[in-house]
Amino acid sequence: MSNAVATTDTHCPYCALQCGMGLRPTGGAVPVSVVERPGFPVNQGALCGKGSNAAAVLAPGARLTTPLVRRDGALRPARWEEALDLVADRLAATAAAYGRDAVGVFGGGGLTNEKAYLLGKFARVALRTSAIDYNGRFCMSSAAAAGTRAFGLDRGLPFPVADIPRTGCVILVGSNPAETMPPFVRYLRELRENGGTLVVVDPRRTRTAELADLHLAPRPGTDLALALGLLHLVVADGRTDEAFIAERTTGWAQTRAAAMAHWPEHVEAVTGVPLPQLREAARLFCDADGAMVLTARGPEQQAKGTDTVSAWINLCLATGNAGRPNAGYGCLTGQGNGQGGREHGQKADQLPGYRKLDDPAARAHVAAVWGVDPDSLPGPGRSAYELLDSLGGEVRALLLTGSNPVVSAPHAGHVTERLRSLDFLVVSDVVLSETAELADVVLPVAQWAEETGTMTNLEGRVILRRKAVDAPAGVRTDLEVLHALAARLGHGEGFPTDPEKAFDELRRASAGGAADYAGISYERIAAEDGVFWPCPSPEHPGTPRLFLERFAHPDGRARFVPVQHRPAAEEPDAQYPVRLTTGRVLAQYQSGAQTRRVDALNAAAPGPYVELHPLLADRLGVRDGDQVAVVSRRGRTVTPARLTTAIRPDTVFMPFHWAGEGSANIHTNPALDPVSRMPEFKACAVRLEPVAVA
Strand 20-25 to strand 32-36: parallel, antiparallel, or no bridges (unpaired)? Predict the structure, then answer.
């Protein structure tokens, strides 16, 4: 008789790489242990510290296990039926008193496809509100907007990550995967082992930049000028692919003219990147037999993020590095389901399958699947920050699930006050986050190892997270919560609690859309280690590589988009002379709501800090470890100084995983990109002040 312990194959609960892992029962307070899963092709068993320690959040002391209702100013334990009755009554009463759009829904980029799909359906069918968006708006919305207008379709990577080592040159813009998704770094190392070159664009010399053949360190907020300057050099040196431009693109003449207005000496002055480095980057890119540009939050989280990404896409198109094997533009998605989370309906302007909410045909298709009148569906609503900014005014009650905007939103102090001003706030989460602490009702929900559901990773590969252990007594799944609330609001049908049934409905709703999942099933995902969308039928093989024959616009051609550099929304001045940029560190994830509850991760990254160059520190009279006040137009925080020569002297860096005194997002600027509605997280003006020791 075998004594072998069954291992459940599943995926990491954190970033968009969605690394494969195994979960093995322990019988202890932490009910499973994480083991390697070498067979999954993306990470081949490798895990970062966050993934290796993911099971710690399953421990009873780390998470919520009973509903909480605010009584006499404090959150107190309550029965599920009492909590659900209260939520349904208050949401219905708010809609009756102020109109349906006075009830808002705010989702998350870490929700499974099934949850994101039913959350969008709940908003539009059970609540009939347009006031829904999600925190994925803060992730890759600029890249999505730029990709859609260039290629006619947005998928983070239009090729598998395994193609990256096979290209000749990668320009990695505003990404630090050595800390944000370490198992991805193997692909960059393999690229160089295969004779390819790596160019990293980042104002800091990060662990990733240390791997590069060439590191460009522009001032935060100047990535658009940098891309335009490289395209100028490509044109001036006669390195464009005229045959590709003629056969597979439109709009080149206007784009070429825009690039030629950004001559190299001007770009050097704007970005701070020396002209010889600009020339070397252009040469490496053009000399390669195939090249890629990969962007992340650095260029995207700007008030001109869409145009910035368009400029990098233009560089790919002008050199023929798109629509062919081992070349192209891609975005490194950040959140675990940042891709799938926006494809299926929790974004303010979208319906399942990446359909547009204002498209009559899209409304008719989805309404038929849902069994409702298309005219009953609300129109597009506000983007994420605009929705948060409207709280306490137009939006009086909010259902928030899987997000922690007190920490993660720009201008976080203002967003916190807006949350406090609500008539009613209900938060559905795994842990008592800083946002949940403000709620009137907190609903404890199951997490990744306690439920089954699909995710879509950064390659567009739909994968299956499998349930490995029962949730503690007193915890329900998000699908059960939505079902119970919908029933109380008069919609007892149409909100399944079985995730596979929810996915089968999602497949029907997405059929014929840009993100077509109709041919994907749980059985296929398990058999094939994931299926790449679009996959319109069970017989279709899936689409690992997009655009090889045609782009997704009706004429099959890619679109050049002419863009011009413009300054950041907030430039340094005499009062606030330093640029602040933000990002992540190796041992923490996003708002830290879960990782800050793991002892091993806190030991590696115990708290906030501000990183500054010794030259700046010397002018301020600051030593390493001193307390420093960071002051912006939006707030003041105090945090230890960390001195390093790996950052520009005119720039400081803060990680954004913490609330309170060390909150980076107290300072970040909510200025919005006019196309994507992405806030400008990556560039704002601050000053630093030494803090006297008492």
Answer: antiparallel
Calpha distance 183→401 (Å, rounded): 28
How far apart, in whole angstroms, are the C-alpha atoms of residue 400 and residue 412?
16
Whether 7 and 22 have beta carbons less than 8 Å apart is answered as yes
- Distance between CA 90 and CA 106 in Å, rounded? 17
Fill in the DSSP letter of residue 57: G
Q: Which residues contact 368 (CB under 8 A, 6 or more apart)?
A: none
Alpha helix stretches (DSSP H) within 489-558: 499-510, 522-528
Q: In 514-536, which positions are buried (b, 16+ CB within 10 angstroms) versus exposed (e)?
A: bbbbbbbbbebbeeeebbbbbbb
Neighbouring residues of 328: CB distance < 8 A, sequence distance ≥ 6: 158, 159, 292, 316, 321, 322, 547
**What gap in Å lies between CA 242 and CA 237, rounded to an integer?**
13
Q: What is the DSSP letter of 157?
A: -
Phi first, then psi: give them for residue 687, nearest 5 degrees: -130, 155
Note whether 11 and 461 are within 8 A (CB).
no
pLDDT digits 0-9 by tens, 146-160: 999 999 999 999 999
Q: How far apart are CA 82 and CA 445, in angstroms?
A: 16
Percent over 90 (pLDDT), the chain: 96
Percent of the chain with pLDDT over 70: 99
Token couple for 320:
């023929």
Give dist(CA 358, CA 379) in Å, integer. 6
Q: Determine whether 381 is exposed, middle or buried from the number of CB atoms within 10 Å of its CB (0-12, 13-18, 19+).
A: buried
What are the tens digits of pLDDT across the range 168-187? 999 999 999 999 999 999 99
Task: Judge contact between 65 and 474, C-beta under 8 A.
Answer: yes
Q: Please tell me the distance from the alpha carbon of residue 310 to that of residue 561, in angstroms, as a whole number.
A: 6
How far apart, in whole angstroms, are the C-alpha atoms of residue 589 and residue 138? 14
Pair of tokens at residue 54: 């993911």
Quote the pLDDT of residue 692. Answer: 81
Find out whether 112 and 457 touch, Cβ atoms under 8 Å: no
Evaluate whether 664 touches 655 at the Cβ level (below 8 Å): yes
Q: Cβ of 49: how many Cβ atoms within 10 Å?
A: 17
Helix (H) or strand (E) segment spanning residue 315: helix 305-318
Q: How far apart are CA 489 and CA 91, in angstroms?
A: 9
Query: What's the pLDDT tens digit per position in 539-580?
Result: 999 999 999 999 999 999 999 999 999 999 999 999 999 999
Residues 445, 481: contact at Cβ < 8 Å?
Answer: yes
Helices (H), 562-686: 599-604, 614-620
Q: How far apart (Å, rounded) are the C-alpha atoms in residues 278 and 262?
A: 12
Give the SS3 label for residue 117: helix
